[in-house]
């Protein structure tokens, strides 16, 4: 009897001690150090895996480290917190996410944190992977929309980041509130979007502007008609095509726009299918 009691007590103590061993202060510090950009292969990815496993117990530590680590560490911690369904963000965190968005991959590229976690954490580029923090944020923002909505509204009036403006517009459309907020898209805001139709050698911004205008619809027609008179060849052709697509439903215009922008791209979730007729009306010039 005494022997069985000793064995049971030893097993119980080990079972209580094991989780503590897995999360010693030293290991937490090591994990946070490994998140930083130091060119060690997979150190950030492995640390993310470990932190994700213990994310609920280490949530306060993760938040504390988030606001003082470097950009790679920031993106890694954000990805872990975005993956935590029980995490409830506060306004400070929401503002921090919003401040991250305009950077896109200017400092931390989509491929810099390759965890191999699968769909949630893969960082092979693009919104479907959800690895880069500026892409993964949008599903999280949608899940906490009431907190983020005032910040999104504020950003529309002043943001020059077309990815953020497009994703915000798309999200409002998805949630059925775009018509209620359509007055946010003032002539000044739409002119700022239209400026991105020009051939300015900035990657993807013209395509994002195209998708914004297609979501906005008729309200954008005055600024698009002005763009159609631009001295910039790209802005002129995109302005003409967008005007014809929105005002007249011209299929050839959609065919041209599809060569310049992925019209079915979404920040997250399933993408709609191209209409069957689209492939028959694709043209290189408009």
Descriptors:
286 residues, mainly alpha, 14 helices, single chain
Describe the structure.
The protein has 286 residues and is mostly helical. Mean pLDDT is 86; it is low at 1-21 and 116-130. The protein has helices spanning 2-21, 25-35, 43-53, 59-66, 71-82, 91-100, 133-143, 145-156, 162-174, 187-194, 205-216, 221-227, 233-248, 251-260. The protein has 2 domains: 23-143; 145-286, no CATH class.
Question: In summary, what is this structure?
Answer:
This protein has helices at 2-21, 25-35, 43-53, 59-66, 71-82, 91-100, 133-143, 145-156, 162-174, 187-194, 205-216, 221-227, 233-248, 251-260. It has 286 residues and is an all-alpha fold.
The string of secondary-structure elements, in order, is: HHHHHHHHHHHHHH
Q: What is the general shape?
A: elongated
What fraction of residues sit in β-strands? under 5%
> Would you tell me the structural class of the helices and strands?
mainly alpha
Task: Give a short account of the largest sheet.
Answer: none
Mean pLDDT: 86
Number of domains: 2
Secondary-structure topology with pairs:
Layout (H helix, E strand, L loop, with lengths): L1 H20 L3 H11 L7 H11 L5 H8 L4 H12 L8 H10 L32 H11 L1 H12 L5 H13 L12 H8 L10 H12 L4 H7 L5 H16 L2 H10 L26
Helix pairs in contact: 2-3, 2-5, 3-5, 4-5, 5-7, 6-8, 9-11, 10-12, 12-13, 13-14
